[in-house]
Fold this protein.
Amino acid sequence: MSKMAAIHTAISLQLADDGKSDVSLDRTLKGPVRADPDYDRNTFLLFLSRVAFRLRIDTPSLIFDYRTIDPDKALDLPRLALEDTIALCTQPADTEPPAAQP
């Protein structure tokens, strides 16, 4: 599975696990995550950590460093933009992490 497909699937599964209906999944897809009253800064960080876990246990395993995402900014992103943001912070598990910037 491609990285983007894995991220999309992990988000979809976590939203479903959080009890989101098909209607709210569609609304979450089109509008900002903040529009969902169930997600505030803390619950969104928990959501991201669970998406990271799903990506980690998938095959091939992906490492998503969710701590690099500013939750206050990410809450204002529509789902597709959130997927792109997650992709920038995700790499295959068998690669070295990027070097720290000086």
